[in-house]
Amino acid sequence: DAMVIQNPRYQVTQFGKPVTLSCSQTLNHNVMYWYQQKSSQAPKLLFHYYDKDFNNEADTPDNFQSRRPNTSFCFLDIRSPGLGDAAMYLCATSREAGTGIEQYFGPGTRLTVT
Amino acid sequence: AQSVAQPEDQVNVAEGNPLTVKCTYSVSGNPYLFWYVQYPNRGLQFLLKYITGDNLVKGSYGFEAEFNKSQTSFHLKKPSALVSDSALYFCAVRADTGRRALTFGSGTRLQVQP
Fold first, then answer.
1. Chain A residues closer than 8 Å to B101 by CB
2. CA separation for the pair A29, A51 (Å, rounded)
3. Which of A50, A44, A45 is nearest to A74 (CA)?
């Protein structure tokens, strides 16, 4: 089945130690998104790629970076995680063609910062 | 700016009874509206969308939603609730032009009692 995959599902890192979260998709969608979700709150968009074009949200901290080496993969890098960065990180994709614009989400990576 | 309001933090309903989860929105231009469901420690799952056309939209698992332009609402409904419908529900909006990012509501927790 076509899907959005996130690895790992659970990640523990130390305060200040860089961490990378991974997302891959088999849907061949041209847009990929990264969201941060805390405590069952609304997901907060960090940034997204439209094809290779990177779109950063104005309030996304510089501590968060992203890479999209090809259509299928997208990475979220947190350069120096703080305790406040502990959250669920959700990757999503969309096709952005015609009316098929809904986003499909991966299962998420729960990040713990110790 | 676009926004979504979900006025109820929690909705309680007995199994077999109809359910409604409320959503109102604000957006410049024509709205694209979405409902997502989230089970514990999982990503968001797409339920249904309104893009254009018939105001009554049918989606997955027996859910439907009615787009009301004059009231700027997009309430989620189901004729007969199941215990397995208990989850967190998010309404989201984006405009038909410009910014692709979704704006999510704060979420409504649906509790279906046996």
1. 33, 45, 48, 57
2. 9
3. A50
